[in-house]
């Protein structure tokens, strides 16, 4: 079994917890409070700006042309999603550019982006791309899981369609293949560190949706 398949199976309880998130259940049936989605989309905009930086660093450190192209393209797409999907939702849910610009990263958002920045700055290329992968793979699983049961019409249909699109699944597969390739050539110690990075990033995915549902703010 490949590295990615092994760690994916190991985090099955976490994946079930993600799919059971009330944020995602209510998003699927269209009943999610607009205030929770507004919180999410603003925080996701802040997240994607930093995620694009992590992808760009992965591209710069990648050992092959294939990996450099994949991660540089991923950084470009992350920025494009921020500009297109987010701007459409900003208009739909009454978020002005000033509101988005002045927003502060929530504890969950700052924790996640800081963790990715730490991987990029202080850890190996292998650990970095293992930490990058959950944002692709978890969103792909979520999109595919909720698309068949999503209510129609649904104010969140564009979000669901984006992450259930075959093109997003293909991008996920390509990144997964790069992580598997890196793991196959790594030492046991590095593979263990890659598993930790993957697990931690997947935990942050759960935390991100939970924080959006609760509209998390800094306690002080």
Q: Any chance you could write out the topology, listing elements then pairs?
A:
Elements lengths: L2 H8 L1 H8 L2 H8 L4 H28 L3 H28 L4 H6 L4 H16 L2 H22 L10 H8 L1 H19 L3 H27 L6
Helix pairs in contact: 2-11, 4-5, 4-7, 4-8, 4-11, 5-10, 7-11, 8-9, 8-10, 8-11
Can you put this structure into words, describing what you see?
The chain is mainly alpha-helical. It has one domain: Heme oxygenase-like (Heme Oxygenase, Chain A), CATH 1.20.910.10. The chain contains eleven helices and no strands. The protein starts with a helix and ends in a 6-residue tail after the last helix.
Shape category:
globular
Number of structurally distinct domains: 1
What percent of the residues sit in helical stretches (DSSP H or I)? over 70%
Largest sheet: none
Q: Please count the beta strands (DSSP E, at least 2 residues each).
A: 0
SS-based class: mainly alpha
CATH architecture grouping: Up-down Bundle
Identify the CATH class.
Mainly Alpha
Stretches where pLDDT is under 50 for at least 5 consecutive residues are none
Order of helices and strands: HHHHHHHHHHH
What is the assembly state of the chains in this entry? single chain
Averaged pLDDT, please?
Answer: 95
| Span between termini | 46 Å
> Number of helix segments?
11
CATH topology grouping: Heme Oxygenase, Chain A
Q: How big a fraction of the residues is strand? A: under 5%
CATH homologous superfamily? Heme oxygenase-like
Radius of gyration: 17 Å
